[in-house]
Predict the structure of HTH bat-type domain-containing protein.
Amino acid sequence: MPTEEEDGAQGALLTLKIWHPDDWTLEVTEETPANLLGHTVYNAADGRVKGHFTAYGDSAEDIDKIVEAASDSRLTHSVAEMQHRYDFGHPHRSLGNASRELLVEYDPEDTISDALVSHGFIQEGPVEIRDGWEYWAVFVDTVDRDYLSQQLDTVRDSHDAEITVTSISSRDSPTGTIRDRVALLSKRQREIFELAHEHGYYSWPREVTTRELADEAGISKTTLLEHLRKAEAKLLEPAINETKESL
């Protein structure tokens, strides 16, 4: 794998289309007309995790169907509805006419998240799940195509997964590296983003709640989320706007 000096601190932003067996999100979105956005994951009891998801669709009936399917799934342990406090807009897709926030408890080995992270693919936004497929935006700190292919093959083999790279963009401009893009943030946005990073907010599973972060920063939860949303938008925009090509 190239060193940072050898590849000019380049990295790549990839969009991955993924299917693998024994994932409740894939099964319920294939069975019902509604879709999901996967946001965050927390550690739960007995080695399980709790994931925060937005269920969205064209009608309240569509949402009812996907909630019922998730509750009945052999792969979930509990499904609870959360109070809707703020919007989780997706930059490329409307959330439809109806949406609902869910907290779902399940076993982490039934997901592909750990495999992606352990092979250098860092999640860069909500995971969109629709029609029985997951759509991931991930960053990896190399542009070596052979290395990327090898790592993806390993993930495929470990989870019997189908993975297609639908787009890839290299970060070879001055704003291409994580460090340079952080410089785009305002002082307060950078402080909150760095605080979140230091406390494991972007780890998987997440190591701190938004309420705990807000208390640490001495601000309201709403203000904290606003700072983070603006910071994340600035960090992602340079990569999203780059010309993409097929892997």
